[in-house]
Amino acid sequence: MKKKVWAVLFSLVFMAQGCSSYTAEKAYKAAHKKLTGLEAYSCKAEIYVKGNKEPGQFKTKQWFYIPDKYRLEVLEPETMKGKTTVFDGNRIWMYYPYIDQVLLLENIDSSTDANLFLGFFLRDMLETESISYSIEEQDGTTMIVIELPVPGVNKYRSTQKLFMSIRNFLPVMLEIYDVNGNVTARVKYSDFVYNPKLDGDFFDKDKIVISMVYEEWDASGMFFDSVEQAREHLDFPPLRVYGMPEGFIQDIVQVVENNNAKTLIVTYGNNEQSLILLQKAVGKGEGKSHQSGELIYLDDREAFYSERNNTRKISWMEGNVRIELVGSITRMALTEIARSIK
Question: Domains in the chain, start-ordered, CATH in brackets?
Answer without folding.
Answer: 21-207 (2.50.20.10), 224-340 (3.30.200.100)
